[in-house]
Known about the structure:
The chain is mainly alpha-helical and 404 residues long. The protein has two domains: 29-38 and 268-403, no CATH class; 42-246, Rossmann fold (3-Layer(aba) Sandwich). The chain is built from 17 helices and eight strands. It has helices spanning 29-38, 42-60, 77-89, 106-118, 130-144, 149-155, 158-165, 178-181, 194-201, 231-237, 252-263, 290-299, 303-313, 319-329, 336-344, 348-355, 390-403; strands at 69-72, 94-99, 122-126, 170-173, 240-243, 365-367, 370-373, 381-385. The strands form three sheets. It has a three-stranded parallel sheet, with helices on both faces. Strands 6-7-8 form a three-stranded antiparallel sheet, with no helix packed on it. Strands 4-5 form a two-stranded parallel ribbon. It is globular.
Amino acid sequence: MVKEMKYCKQCVYPFATVNLHVDDDGICSSCKTFEAFEKIPEEFWDKRRQRLKDLIEETSDGNDSEYDCLIPVSGGKDSYYQAHVITKELGLKPLLMTYHGNNFLPEGDYNRDRMREVFDADHIVWGPNIEVLKKLNRLGFKRMGDMNWQNHCGIFSSPIQMAAKFKIPLIIWGEINWDISGMFDPDDFMEFSARVRHEHDLRGYEWYDFIGDKEDKLIEKDMIWAKYPSDEEILEVGIRGLYIGNFFKWDPNKHSKMMQEKYGWQEAKKPFERTYRKMSNLDDRYENGIHDLMKFIKFGYGRCSDHASKDIRTGYMTRDEGIEKVREYDAVVSSDLDYWLDYVDMSKDEWWSIADTFRDPRVWWIEDGMWWKHNVWGTPSSFGEVHLNQEQLDAFNKRQKAID
């Protein structure tokens, strides 16, 4: 049996698989970072907002584009907030750019398509061939346990291509996930980089890694949207990616309410099966569902743990309430699994046999043919049958022994 998995005493994050630093008091670096941000005086944000204005003014000098900036948008609450700040508060003319991965919820379609109207902005939507997306869903799942690789790649590739083509030097991204691992301090100033895109968002893969598969047979022309511009193209325009979260205090609950009141932005009408929030990831039905189920299968925690940890820190719920949310949602096998299996023509048995190979041995152990793990509420539980063949089982046991 693996060692008991520890959890932060203040939120509900596990220490084993979230990239966290833990002090002797049992409080994670994510919570510590949030506390540091809460102590920041308003004058700090005043200076940051002025810094944004100065950077925009600097970038506009010599700007050959008709647009002041480009904003990558999905139509979500964060996209609306980005566009609100740029168009309404700063009075700029942006080009909106959406990567369309083909699995928007109805509310996501509605919100996305209204952006050009409510913000008086031009809007480009780039959606790859549907058959190509299905193939990439299958390949991403089999190779890295992530059927949404195509989404991550498209979101962080196609807007940079558009910036290069339209000679737009400034890209305005959304929030910075300061509190996911507590990596950054208030004085840090994050900018978008090709390295973070490749190593983090794309898991170290690029478009060419999916060419030549014997079964799905993708070719280079299928992946035009996935290519990142050359250094020469980026330097010629002077493309720079800033995060709006560097300049404004970030509160998704507050921003969601604001966007609803100002622009009629819609949250999900139907509750999600794997988290209690109804305002996140409306651009991809799998992000809160099967994609997040894979995170639980891999690392033993899910999106509900993310949402609850954030809401505990901001005071929207107590830790005990967060623990009950995690107990209710984190392990749910959502019905969109069946939808995805039909989408890519895969059997449920094949899906589980692949999914189980990604289990993290720091979290999971096998007992009586079932997967077990320790929980934030204090007692271990089983979460489904083991679907490994003998070779895969031997490999898992070998990895677990290496950790022990």
